[in-house]
Specification:
By secondary structure, this protein is α+β, with helices and mostly antiparallel strands. The protein has helices at residues 3-21, 31-40, 72-78, 105-113, 138-147, 185-193, 197-205, and strands spanning 23-29, 45-46, 49-50, 52-56, 65-70, 91-96, 122-127, 131-136, 150-151, 154-155, 157-161, 173-180, 209-211, 214-215, 228-231, 235-245, 251-258. It folds into three domains: 3-85, Ribosomal Protein S8, Chain: A, domain 1 (2-Layer Sandwich); 91-165, RRM (RNA recognition motif) domain (Alpha-Beta Plaits); 173-258, RNA-binding S4 domain (Structural Genomics Hypothetical 15.5 Kd Protein In mrcA-pckA Intergenic Region, Chain A, Roll), CATH 3.10.290.10.
Length: 260
């Protein structure tokens, strides 16, 4: 059975649980898994009945989120409300290190994974100059705080914080303004990464390109504002803005490159 089928089967079980108990939540899902879940439950109907589904990562703009299933009718009858106690779904931790040390997202994630923790028990990790904050399942918070003492050779200290203390997430983007012949995937990819259209098409055909967290093999796929592009080995980009056309009929676009 494929991984996607296993995931959707598990989510169906959670939906069934929510129908009986009012609320159930998955572990943290990747953006691609969220998309699969949203499409599967797009009419609010699972195999076991009607249920509401929403996605939450503990703060706005979270990339990794939990799928939360709600049976509003049940909740209203039994609790007088129509939603879960959201404060019980997430915990937040702050990781700090000395000013002279430098750590990044990969260092923090690697140190946490080295504790034997599964990736889907942790949500987003937000790194700043001298600290990082992360969201996790509440049942993992104490274990991480007690056992995470180093990231590589760098000593760290970990403390619990409230979700309201999480920093605002800013996208680290380098802006590119260009014109494209069309909004086809290969054209926008070419502008984003400074490639020829031929090279961009080769990357797409070799299954190295994802569009909105899903593999895409269609060079002619039309993009819209907000489209997320990922190229294995090159990085990620977002189509931020589609403007007017030039005298030669080319389309003005604004593209953001991540981490450049």
């Amino acid at each position: 059975m494929e991984q996607k089928d296993l995931l959707l089967g598990h989510l169906e079980d959670l939906a069934g649980k929510a129908i009986k108990t009012g609320c159930a939540a998955s572990r943290f899902l990747t953006p691609a898994e969220q998309r699969d879940a949203a499409l599967h439950f797009r009419h609010g109907r699972g195999r076991k009945g009607i249920v509401d589904i929403t996605f939450d990562g503990g703060f706005e703009e979270a990339e990794r989120t939990r799928a939360v299933f709600l049976n509003s009718d049940y909740a209203k009858r039994t609790l007088g409300v129509g939603e879960c106690d959201w404060d019980t779904l997430f915990a937040a931790l702050k990781i700090e290190w000395r000013p002279q040390d430098t750590l990044g997202h990969r260092d923090i994630l690697g140190a946490i994974m080295a504790l034997g923790i599964e990736r889907d028990t942790i949500g987003d990790i937000i790194c700043e100059d001298r600290c990082a904050t992360l969201v996790c399942l509440p049942e993992m918070s104490g274990y991480i705080a007690e056992n995470l003492t180093k990231a590589g050779r760098v000593s760290v200290s970990v403390s619990a914080i409230g979700l309201n203390a999480l920093p605002v997430r800013h996208e680290d983007l380098t802006l590119i303004t260009d014109t494209v012949a069309s909004l086809r995937l290969d054209a926008v990819l070419s502008a984003a990464f400074g490639l020829s259209r031929t090279k961009a098409a080769e990357l797409i055909e070799s299954d190295r390109v994802s569009l909105n967290h899903q593999p895409c093999l269609q060079s002619a796929k039309e993009l819209t504002e907000g489209a997320l592009l990922s190229v294995r080995g090159l990085g990620r980009a977002k189509l931020l803005e589609v403007g007017g056309t030039s005298k030669k009929g080319r389309i003005f676009v604004k593209i953001g490159l991540y981490g450049r």
